[in-house]
Amino acid sequence: MAPSSGSPPRWECRASPRLELFLAAWSLASDRAQRHPEWRRQGRRALPGTYWAAEAALGGTPEIWLLAAAAPGAVPLDSTPIELLGRIEHRPAGAVLTAMLTALLGDPVLARRVAVGGLTLPRALASLPRPRLLALSSMDFEPSDLDHPLWASLARFAADPEAGQRALVAGLDAFREAVFEPLWRSLAGAEAKLAASVAAGIERGDWTGLGHRLGLGVEFEPKAGALRQVTGGARTDMGQIGSLQFLPSSFNEPRWWFVDPEGERGTAWLPFLDPSLGPEPQRGGALESEPAAIPAARPGSAARNLTPAAGGDVALVFRALGDATRFAIAHLLARRAMPAVELARQLHLSKPTVTHHLHFLRDAGLIEEQGEGGRKLLALRRDALEALSSRTVRRLFEADAVPPARSRRRPT
């Protein structure tokens, strides 16, 4: 892949706790997580009081753990969880906060202004371009909701970075010892096997469409030398990136990814979720479907999106169709296949808005892509909807299928 300037970025695809520590912490704490419900129930019971005290000090927002993935900065992939926490603990507190804000805002200059108190976070969010706002929304952040507790948590962190840093390390260390260390020992082998398979495919395959095949929220545009966010269309010049890090993940439901600008050229951290991984694996993952070559779909053939609707969580389907705009999109695609630009025209929506809604329909496994005369057409998967009724009945009536709603804070 040739970027627009400079030498091509190197890439790695390896199993590592570098991001899994933080993604697993988010999964355990977040009421939005859907996967591994029994593991999350048991893990919450195992967390000690030091974790809950640290979470409360940080404002009780699970999204803080996603941002904390940027806190260690540039560290080797073979770093242990203890080494990751040591890196966070010994960095200047202001650098930790700036790294987290940079991952969120996608702009290191803006992040530094917020970190030093020169700009409030709400004003920084309001100044972001629309593509970045749409990208954050697609990753389960809520930049348009200025009352979201995450913003208050980050403001508290900015008011006393040293206290925020201590709470971050204390919470992650308690989670590491009580939950993550034994979890990682059980996951490392399967994640390493998947990483080797995917790495072989990247080595041999076409970069075009790679993001879609891995379920990432980004696509690679070799001719333009750019990394493009699927939702919102924001582009990052590949000349600014020195390293692409593909890491298998059991927990990255939000499709969180970020660029760490540390160094002469930055690092793009790209964790890809696979349903066959994790403490409660599901069918349909890459380890079961032999994706080593990661083949691109042939022209004129349908490229089915075998995601949750093929047998995973039905909640994603209801979330996708529960929105009036997405239901209208599904209705049009059920009548005939059409390109995204035609959807935008018929519904009088902007292309970024259509892209945003298609993200949810794809995640639910309701969309398939078809090639016709060089055009990419979208269609609704009738088979996925026909199977929905029986799967919903099984999900609702099987024992302990859905975890009870929980507060983000530990009950007192």
Automatic annotation (TrEMBL):
Keywords: DNA-binding, Transcription, Transcription regulation. Residues 306-400 form the HTH arsR-type domain. GO terms for molecular function: DNA binding; DNA-binding transcription factor activity. It comes from the Bacteria. CDD domains: HTH_ARSR. Gene3D superfamilies: Winged helix-like DNA-binding domain superfamily/Winged helix DNA-binding domain. NCBIfam families: HTH_metalloreg. This is HTH arsR-type domain-containing protein. It comes from Hypericibacter terrae.
